[in-house]
Backbone:
């Protein structure tokens, strides 16, 4: 599609203020480093503190994007209405039983935020505990954490972020009268567990660099300054989190980066207890604990178990010397998670790029698998809030089948459908086809592609296609039902997911082959998927749109440099495109914890050169680029706003073609964009309108 589909509008031109940066004897010049606010920590908490020249540039970029997309306003409204029409506005979850109550979430018609409720255990009138819409009144951004109820069911710990910066304020609600107590915790990383006596709770505090580094215990009624420090992590490369057990008997402190983990535990009934180390961190050793009465179940890669195995250890002494194999390692079968019950152990695993659930009877060791029929699908192990039960809960969907929630009796093997995702505007799975393809990568590996399209679509190369990819941190993108892409599919698009290396779709090796010195496999896999779809006649390069966000935005930046001719358009949401500069800046929130994923270019010249060879910002060169839409959030602590801002400025400088390159910065949100469930749809509608316009389904008139 020719570039004149977009109007001729003069783009903003960022001023060049060259800064020389030298590492390992190598000097680079960054003309746009000034877009990084020196007071970025202050801006996270108060966006009004952003320097005037930077704000002016971001606002100019927003105005340019608005002008280029002005003729799609009606289309955006239509797309928004379609996507909203597929959402059951007064939807609610299936309540989860916990003691005398069952807890759940629900939305009111027109509501942006969830409300949390409970009912008597066996059903009855709903008691609203917390109403997100009420709490969000008057705030331009508002996000609730998942709340935690106390073991005695008298209190609710809840938290909110009203900037998008992920600094949470925690409050304690007395459920007898729904009043918040005077307790207020600032700069928390989210809610934590109550102690067994319901007299206080544990939480993680973020430091000045937005890193979760300290675990505190807060006694109800105390000032935050009085809180007891339970654990402090001094290594900036490790994340810290805290959570409890379903029996309310243990508090777990997890310390980890992307390849190494360490746990400390303390009894939930003793707020004065010191945490006990389970197994000291050992580079590359990963493990997690699941309490099971008198034993801990341990999911670990110890002893070379690359795809993980399950071990046990006695609660009386769970140190590493007492770990014993229970479910041995099986290469190619990746165990993702486990949930323990009194009589059963359930695991979610991945084999041949498909998930499966296996139930093991603890006493006999007998195992059985819950069977499914579709060619490609997604599973989620929801588990239960209780330990002494025969029933676990899981979710199922495919790219054509709406999500279903089941209760499964592990003893009788009876499966009960509790809920099927409703699509109020209508959805007939028979109108669509889902397929699993395998694209040959340059090194001979076969890369899975999951796709969906209308059954009546002509597969002659003329169809537009949205190819989505992520490929980092071992995250697997499931072949799940998603209502939003149906707005594209119903307009003749193919929606495809590239299960590229960097994820764990084909086991741990699939992840290891897409990180650090092997990172470029992620990019070449995605390009291979694009070319395979073209070769099979599904689409053509001038009809192909690529999309990825965050680390998937890095992927977008890389393929834009490596194979711009293969894509008509690219959407890069909060894109991690300034990789080298970010990994060289150890003051940023995620930099030290990310070194195991990308490498440490400060300490290692080899890592520096590896990252420099693919970092999208550093590898922009004179060539025609696809039409690009980049999305950013001003208060994003994960991918800072200046990464896409710098990237877009430099792309324009080197772009030898006529395709426009746009940046939209949400000046009131962070990494996840707008906070409300419908407000978020407005941003998706913009992206989809951009895609539809780029491939020429609508003209510029």
Residues:
């Amino acid at each position: 599609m020719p570039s004149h589909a977009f109007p001729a509008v003069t783009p903003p031109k960022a001023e060049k203020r060259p800064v020389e940066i030298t590492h390992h004897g190598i000097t680079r010049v960054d003309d746009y480093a000034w877009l990084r606010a020196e007071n970025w920590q202050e801006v996270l908490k108060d966006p009004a503190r952003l320097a005037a020249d930077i704000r002016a540039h971001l606002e100019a970029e927003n105005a340019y994007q608005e002008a280029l997309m002005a003729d799609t306003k009606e289309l955006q409204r239509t797309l928004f209405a379609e996507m909203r029409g597929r959402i059951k506005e007064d939807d609610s979850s299936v309540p989860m039983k916990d003691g005398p109550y069952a807890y759940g979430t629900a939305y009111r018609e027109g509501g942006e935020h969830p409300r949390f409720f409970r009912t008597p255990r066996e059903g009855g009138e709903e008691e609203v505990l917390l109403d997100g819409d009420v709490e969000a009144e008057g705030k331009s951004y508002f996000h609730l954490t998942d709340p935690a109820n106390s073991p005695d069911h008298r209190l609710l710990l809840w938290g909110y972020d009203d900037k998008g910066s992920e600094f949470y304020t925690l409050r304690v609600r007395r459920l007898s009268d729904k009043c918040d107590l005077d307790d207020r915790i600032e700069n928390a990383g989210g809610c934590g567990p109550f102690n067994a006596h319901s007299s206080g709770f544990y939480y993680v505090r973020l430091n000045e660099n937005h890193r979760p580094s300290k675990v505190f215990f807060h006694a109800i009624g105390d000032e935050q300054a009085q809180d007891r420090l339970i654990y402090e992590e001094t290594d900036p490369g490790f994340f810290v989190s805290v959570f409890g057990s379903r029996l309310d008997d243990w508090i777990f402190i997890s310390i980890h980066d992307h390849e190494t983990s360490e746990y400390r535990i303390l009894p939930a009934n003793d707020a004065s207890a010191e945490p006990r180390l389970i197994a000291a961190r050992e580079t590359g050793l990963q493990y997690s604990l699941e309490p099971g009465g008198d034993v801990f179940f341990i999911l670990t890669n110890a002893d070379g178990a690359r795809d993980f195995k399950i071990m046990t250890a006695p609660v009386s002494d769970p140190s590493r010397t007492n770990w014993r194999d229970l479910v041995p390692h099986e290469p190619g079968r990746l165990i993702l998670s486990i949930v323990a019950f009194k009589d059963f152990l359930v695991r979610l695993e991945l084999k041949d790029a498909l998930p499966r659930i296996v139930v093991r009877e603890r006493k006999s060791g007998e195992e059985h698998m819950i069977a499914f029929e579709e060619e490609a699908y997604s599973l989620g192990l929801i588990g239960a809030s209780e330990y002494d039960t025969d029933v676990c809960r899981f979710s199922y969907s495919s790219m054509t089948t709406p999500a279903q929630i089941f209760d499964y009796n592990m003893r009788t093997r009876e499966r009960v459908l509790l809920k099927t995702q409703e699509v109020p505007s209508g959805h007939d799975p028979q109108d669509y086809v889902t397929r699993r393809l395998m694209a040959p990568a340059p090194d001979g590996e076969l890369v899975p592609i999951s796709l969906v399209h209308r059954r009546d679509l002509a597969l002659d190369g003329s169809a537009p296609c949205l190819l989505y990819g992520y490929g980092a941190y071992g995250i697997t993108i499931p072949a799940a039902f998603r209502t939003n892409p149906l707005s594209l599919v119903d307009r003749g698009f193919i929606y495809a997911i590239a299960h590229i290396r960097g994820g764990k779709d084909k086991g741990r090796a699939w992840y290891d082959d897409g990180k650090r010195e092997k990172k470029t496999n992620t990019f070449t896999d995605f390009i291979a998927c694009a070319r395979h779809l073209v070769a099979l006649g599904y689409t053509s390069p001038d009809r192909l749109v690529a999309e990825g966000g965050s680390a998937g935005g890095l992927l977008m930046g890389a393929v834009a440099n490596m194979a711009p001719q293969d894509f008509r358009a690219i959407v890069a949401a909060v894109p991690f495109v300034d990789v080298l500069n970010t990994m060289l800046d150890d003051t940023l929130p995620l930099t030290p914890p990310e070194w195991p994923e990308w490498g440490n270019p400060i300490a290692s010249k080899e890592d520096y050169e590896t990252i420099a060879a693919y970092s999208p910002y550093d590898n922009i060169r004179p060539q025609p680029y696809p039409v690009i839409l980049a999305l950013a959030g001003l208060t994003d602590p994960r991918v800072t706003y200046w990464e896409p801002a710098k990237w877009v400025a430099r792309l324009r400088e080197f772009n030898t073609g006529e395709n426009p390159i746009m940046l939209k910065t949400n000046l009131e949100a962070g990494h996840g964009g707008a906070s409300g469930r419908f407000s978020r749809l407005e941003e998706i509608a913009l992206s989809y309108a951009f895609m539809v316009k780029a491939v020429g389904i609508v003209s510029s008139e």
In short: The longest strand covers residues 179-188. The first helix runs from residue 40 to 45.
